[in-house]
Design goal:
Length: 201
């Protein structure tokens, strides 16, 4: 007589269990991928907004012009000297001088480009699409310059930053950063259509 406590799984029980796990995973896969994409969008938006706020606060603290620059990188995981201003970068530099070709430099108050802070977008954010525009709605220079009062300088700089998934599906969350003339930043969701919703742009 077999001991019921030592009985293992039969092949049929094992196959049923594996089949149920496969069905469950395939049912959850779309929602998990959407959640991951939305998390990446939110992460990039938070990073860009933090960089803009840092540039503004540094300009006020130093009482001089400080620039926030969206940059492109050859290797998006590492901040190196391949950087150039671009209207669609996920990486950014806050500096007092133009950081073009000098993004690999350490933070310094004396050595050009006098970098205050910098952040590489990272390889995990390659699914995020970023585009910036100026106050007139045209393509921006990829730069926002703040003066000692914390106000934006010039009209061709960054006024709006759109953050979305590169596939731009309806399931994905899109975010928008708006930089006011006074230098303040706000985050909203362009896909929210209800005007009474606080997330509405």
């Amino acid at each position: 007589m077999r001991d019921p406590l030592r009985r293992g799984l039969t092949l049929i029980e094992l196959m049923v269990t594996v089949s149920l796990l496969v069905l469950l995973a395939s049912a959850l896969e779309p929602s998990i991928s959407t959640w991951l994409a939305n998390t990446q969008i939110r992460s990039v938006a938070s990073s860009l907004q933090a960089g803009l706020q840092r540039a503004r606060s540094e300009a006020v603290r130093r009482n001089e012009r400080v620039r926030f620059t969206l940059v492109s990188l050859d290797n998006s995981a590492v901040m190196d000297d391949s950087c150039a201003p671009v209207a669609s970068g996920v990486s950014w530099v806050v500096s007092l001088d133009d950081p073009t070709g000098l993004c690999g430099a350490d933070s310094s108050d004396t050595a050009s480009p006098r970098i205050v802070e910098k952040r590489a977008g990272g390889v995990g954010r390659k699914t995020v699409a970023v585009s910036s525009s100026n106050a007139a709605g045209g393509a921006s220079s990829g730069v926002a310059v703040f003066n000692g009062f914390g106000r934006l300088v010039g009209t061709d700089g960054i006024a709006v930053v759109e953050i979305d998934n590169i596939t731009a599906g309806s399931d994905y969350r899109a975010l928008r950063i708006v930089v006011g003339a006074g230098g303040t930043t706000s985050l909203c969701e362009p896909k929210v259509t209800d005007t009474s919703d606080p997330r509405h742009c």
